[in-house]
Design goal:
By secondary structure, this protein is an alpha+beta fold. The chain folds into two domains: 33 residues; 85 residues, no CATH class. The protein has two helices and seven strands; from the N terminus they run αβββββββα. Strands 1, 2, 3, 4, 5, 6 and 7 form a seven-stranded antiparallel β-sheet that branches. A hairpin with a 4-residue loop joins strand 5 and strand 6. The longest helix has 33 residues. The protein starts with a helix and ends with a helix. The model has no long low-confidence stretch (mean pLDDT 81).
Length: 128
């Protein structure tokens, strides 16, 4: 029967081997995992629009801004605790929220952009 010293030495070797294997696997995952993500997963370019003295902030994703037909611009925004998809009519200073990738209709759900609002700050940035 092995002595206590021999058993401890053997366990120590096993623990060291496990640590080395764990470090190798962790390093491999850190290298491979980002390559498996779709390109758009890390492509967001969130830009601060406004931050209040209470700590809440509003952002829009500059990489999501797309020109659509008829001077309409589409983009994502984070206002308060929510993230939203918007469309804005640049000539008419109107906006609408897009639900699940589709607006209800051509003229449905448009609302005027209020002066001094976060939407107005985004409008001034994304509308040519």
């Amino acid at each position: 029967m092995p002595s206590l010293k021999e058993r401890t030495a053997k366990k120590g070797g096993t623990v060291k081997t496990r640590i080395v294997v764990l470090l190798i696997v962790t390093t491999a995952l850190m290298i491979v995992f980002p390559l498996l993500l779709p390109p758009e997963a890390g492509a967001a370019d969130w830009r601060l629009v406004r931050q209040s003295s209470y700590g809440d902030a509003s952002y829009y994703d500059a990489s999501s801004v797309k020109q659509l037909e008829g001077r309409v611009v589409s983009f994502r925004a984070r206002l308060g605790a929510g993230e939203y998809q918007y469309e804005m009519r640049c000539g008419k200073k109107e906006a609408r929220l897009i639900e699940e990738g589709k607006a209800a209709g051509h003229d449905e759900k448009w609302f005027p952009i209020t002066n001094g609002s976060d939407e107005e700050l985004i409008y001034q940035t994304v509308c040519p």
